[in-house]
Amino acid sequence: MSQLRGIETFVKTVQGGSIAAAARQLGITAAAASQNLARLEKELGTRLLSRTTRTQALTPAGEAYFARVSTLLSGLAEAHDELSSLQSVVQGRLKIACSVAFGRHVVAPLMVDFMRRYKQVRVEMTLVDTQLDHLKEGIDVSIRYRHTLEPGLVARRIAVMPMVFCAAPSYLAQHGRPTTPRALDQHACLAYRRPQDGRLMEWPFVSNGTRFVPSFNPCTVCDDIDTLTAMALAGAGITRLGSCIANPLIQAGLLEPLFQNTSARTKTHADPEPLEFYACYQDRHHVSPPVRAYVDFMVAELQDHVLLRPPPLKNVPLAPVK
After folding, report:
1. Considering only CA atoms, which of 257, 241, 205, 251 is closest in space to residue 102?
2. Structural domain boundaries, residue 290
């Protein structure tokens, strides 16, 4: 049994790039992971990893050993998951990563029902607005919007979030209300900067099936949606929020929506382009029961809250916001 723990630590260390990454995935300390490796190397009578204070590399013996035991561990994991599936028991750890705002306003409220339904699943959530490596950080499922998808991950769409342009009544009383998206450049705008690449989020619209991106005047830029919401509530300007954040504030009379004149829709009417969200996981052919259960749960739950099938869009070569 101790040898199996050593093998698992060795494989996770190679896949994650460090002993610390392996320890996070296994839920143990880095010291314990290092001891597991040392015992394994002692039992085998050879060094598997050449380690310094800053780097590590596989020895020739380590390369040969890793090629053998990595497939062994995959087979054991598949056998364990198949047995759990046969027993109709969803159990084990589920580590979820998602953006801060989506985690606070969508994932967390729904998590109560998921945990009540799957009592033997141990949930760990990481809320961060930067990209995390699934292998290095031990992530089972990450929830990302379309612009942050990356190759190598399976992505299943779980929701399409309507976006709402809004401002406080005090701001609109003082500065007036823009009647078209192209009037945004005459107003103070509160913009979101993506931590992943440092770029401003565009403010795209759809008019008669055609997508366009008007210019706007960002008086304030921030990488936290809740901070921009607080500034909008204080009357600092116009911002773009997901419906899960904006709608309760609009219903309470704290914010007013823009560009929603449904009684006078014309050919020039434009709707804010929604934001698509995806559940991402590592392996298409080997999906663990907790991952499958969680993704299916989110799809089913979000069908009642957001639009899942937006109309097809045509791209128009207009200059995006830089």
Report:
1. 241
2. 92-161+276-302
Instruction: Give residue-wise pLDDT tens across range 44-96.
Output: 888 888 876 667 888 888 888 888 887 777 777 666 666 555 545 788 889 99
Residue 313 has what pLDDT?
A: 36
Tell me: pLDDT of 125 over 90: yes
HSE-up of residue 195 (Cα within 13 Å, Cβ side): 11
**Block residue for tokens 């899942």:** 308
Q: Strands across the sheet with 121-127, in order? A: 121-127, 92-98, 141-145, 275-281, 154-161
Selection from 31, 291, 37, 22 nearest residue 137 by Cα:
22
Number of domains, the chain: 3
Burial (CB count within 10 angstroms: exposed 0-12, middle 13-18, buried 19+), residue 180: middle
| 262 lies in the same domain as 117 | no
Q: 189 with 218: CB under 8 angstroms?
A: yes
Residue 220 · residue 236 · CB < 8 Å: yes
